[in-house]
Amino acid sequence: MKKSTIWVLMIMMTITFSALILVQAKFLKATSEMAEKQFDEAVKRSMIQTANLLEENEALEYLAQTLDDNEYVQSESKSNNFVINGQKDTLKSNWKSSSSISPRIRLSTGHGKATIEETSKYLQQKFQSNFSRSKTILDQAVFRWLRENENKEISERVDFTDLNETLETYLKNNNVDLPFYYTIVDNRNKIIYQCNKTINTNLRPNTDIYVQELFPHEDSYRKAYMQVVFPTKQSFIYESLNLLLPSVGVIVFTFIIFVLTIVIIFRQKQLNNMKNDFVNNMTHEFKTPISTISLASQMLQDPGVGKNPDMMKHVTNVIRDETKRLSLQVEKVLQMSMFEKEKSTLKFTEIHINNLIKDIIGSFSLKVTSKGGKINSSLKAQSDIAYVDEIHFTNIIFNLMDNALKYSDKPLILNLETWNEKDNLLISVEDNGIGMKREDLKRIFDKFYRVSTGNLHNVKGFGLGLAYVKKMVTDHNGSIKVESEPGIGTKFTIIIPTLKKNNYE
Questions:
Q1: Which of 235, 317, 396, 484 has the most C-beta neighbours closer than 10 Å?
Q2: pTM for the full predicted model
Q3: How far apart are CA 446 and CA 399, in angstroms?
Q4: Is 444 within 8 Å of 464 (Cβ atoms)?
Q5: What are the tens digits of pLDDT across the range 198-208?
Q6: Residue 45 falls within a domain, yes or no?
Q7: What separation in angstroms does the CA of 358 have from each of 71, 353, 362?
Q8: b or e along 40-59 (b: 16 or more beta carbons within 10 Å of the residue's beta carbon)?
């Protein structure tokens, strides 16, 4: 897959997910606002109903008190009850005795009216007169009630316990079953009454505190207001969105999968590019010795070469050297199979690391001195015995020294040092080469990765050396770290346990 195709796919998927997340966020916000609006309407409706009931009950209670205070009305009420009861008994007996007799209509003339029309007009006038008299009495009672209420404190007019029960009942009737607390304040916001809890001043006045005027139909200078707060309101709103949370989780999970997929695609693309570079390098590395051996074998077929011992020796040396070089390249390719194994098969033996490094320096010094370089050693480790695979551990040190020689743009100064820290043996390989950038340090131990050498074009390899070093150090129960500065040099430090700490099988 082309890199441009991957980028187009990533951009399209990013736009799609962004739009999906935006739509989901708007939907969640709209649902939350709708739930809060419904809650607010239910609370306000309950508070209005409570205030209206409070006002109506006070009026009815005053009228009942007014009627109870009138003794004449009470006595008349009792006599009327007696008469009415007697009439009821008479009506019952008459009904039983005359149940079989057909009803008859008779026009009463006790009021002096002989016709139905006159009787109807008379009764209407009587009703209007009684209504006017009753209305006058009620108006007078209401006037006295209003006049008396102007001088009453709100605490004298309201039973706060009943108010709490009434409000709770109306809230439940409107499907609001949440704990609440309320406060009664005057028009100056002075607290007249409050329940056990105090309203938090950090609440949002327009949304978290609900206010309702008590006795809203009165035109009084002693205004009182009821403030109601629901401490768990926000939790209730969030819980109403629980059904939408699975869809949000699915979107987030899908987005994570998308990101991981893109990362894997890029890594695979990068790995594929590195493998292609590896194949190109391998082809070049194999082609040179093969062509040289082929040319030398053709020279051996020349009879003149066979007659010249010096030429014969030169040609055979070339074939031997190029064959050895080819074998080394094949060995490096075979090392690739080791990366596929979780644990390499190593043959551990007790080795004096200081002596091993001295031998490596002795065999490698010729390469360094031939290019005007120098190797310095400071093998200070007192406890240098470690349980290692001699061949592979030799390759570790050799690869680090060989890299230092490859990536040097001036006469190489190579410093090797050993020392002890606690039960560990530390080995450092430091050079004065071209160094590495910080972004390269994070990837130098990856397979097939090769650091760009800028104008230095004579560096060859497969990008396996440091990956091999990292794996072998890990298989020796050790660790490796690197420090580097461009233009200054690079320092590798290997940390392995000494024999006292080893637990190899």
A1: 396
A2: 0.43
A3: 15
A4: no
A5: 545 455 555 57
A6: yes
A7: 128, 9, 6
A8: eebbeebbebbbebbbeeee
